[in-house]
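User: I'll paste a sequence; please echo it back and then give the predicted structure.

Assistant: Echoing your sequence first, then the prediction.
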Amino acid sequence: MLLLSLPIGKDGPVQKLPALLSKYPRWCALIVGALSATGFEPWGLWPVTLLCFALLIHLVGNAPNKRRAAMIGWLFGVGHFSVGNNWIAVAFTFQAAMPIWLGYFAVVILALYLAVYPALAASGAWWVNSHAKRAAKPGSHIPLILAFAGCWTISEWLRSWLFTGFAWNPLAVVWQSQLELARAAGLFGTYGLSAVVVATSGLILLAVHRQWRPLVAGAAALAGLWLYGLEIPTTPSLQKGPRLTIVQPDISQADKYEPGYEAINFAKLAMNSRPLPDQGPRLLLWPEAALPDYLEDGYPYRYYYYQPGESAAGARARLTTLMQDGDVLVTGANRLVIEKGKLVAARNSVSALDSSGTLLGHYDKAHLVPYGEYLPAPWLLRPLGLARLVPGDLDFWPGPGPQTLTVKVGDQPVKVGIQICYEIIFSGQVVDSTERPDFIFNPSNDAWFGTIGPPQHLAQARLRAIEEGLPVVRATPTGISAIIDADGRIVQRLALGTAGRIDARLPVAKAPTLFATYGNILPVGFALLLIAGALLPLARRRTSS
């Protein structure tokens, strides 16, 4: 419908716009990059994103050299990431009451770095196109579109792991609300789906330049993906799993660590945790860092001051008052690392305990947030007065990676995969490959991130469900808590900034998807095929000669 509505006549505004904007390509790239981020939540203007990427491809194709193409890609990225990541500014207001303007300054500084990846994609696409167009049909945009889709995919994959990675808001997220297309993430992953978004933008460019034959072929391929997505049932997956109680206490970040608020915050958790009449055994799920108490025995006595009974056993006993026989509580609660009687680090953890107060196991967060949970180069930054956003002087240490924690709810064994907060955004890195879980539990603390970060976080969790064929359950202190089925649909949710609970059964998992089996080798391979397709005319010319 978008393509059909475009005025693509010879004198139409779409024909004039590229020529007018190309007079100021750098400003155009910056502004278009900023507008492109409006396709992310909470705005959801994905057609705007498609149009912006069509303009970006046009600007890159018209760049006189690779260096200029890289500059256009970099400026686009500065705008794109400054708008898409602006929720980060809110987090800075919780660190020593920093002014909001300093947070926005940090957002722009981060964008200056993240924009390197679009710059790499743009320069790589320009280089491939400069070689391919020597043998392609004159005026053809196919090599440029294929090259840009492939290079963008590789740049997102690189962004997910270089320098610990920052995978927030891959381009594919703009389609998380279009489940018929988003389902392709189960085939070739989120980064492969990003290539489809870029290629769809390329269809707009083909329409503008009236290249009908490749336009029809591309539209047919897109329609094929849409038809594949139509296989999703019209109703959510049957909920046959264990009973769940997900608690959202609505504890603001300002109150979370405030002295004297421990009892108030616990009362908010407790109010929505007690079993309902005839509910039966259930999995009780609390958010990240829900408890200030230490649940493990063996720490020096001073660390248990102010806990119930001034002991780990006392803290666990208080929790059992909220449970019935057969219940299991899975909650965020930090752990300590003590070596030779000295506290050296902490771990952002999730612990499970049964209704008798017995600890059943732990999961330690593996993918920690730079500046949030540890301070890089502390020898340099601490003298400058910088500190972590999370209160305390100790850095957190990472855990070993994705693990499955098996617990017994009543008589029913349940395999719980756990990804704490930020970890859920890393495509292909969220499931224990040796023991596939029944679902992924994503306890999080999104209270840092204002009103923009939480819906973006939820959108990315939906893609993990589609990729892995597993339900995802989120528990957060202020929202958005939700149950997401294995097809990426939100079964139930609690609105941002509200207190409440979700009582439901766990949706069933699906068979492992293609992506769940092979991981990110699929999107990277897909990207390389696209780049090879861009170079195909050149290979044909060499073969014929």
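The first strand starts at residue 239 and ends at 248. The chain is about 40% helix and 15% strand.
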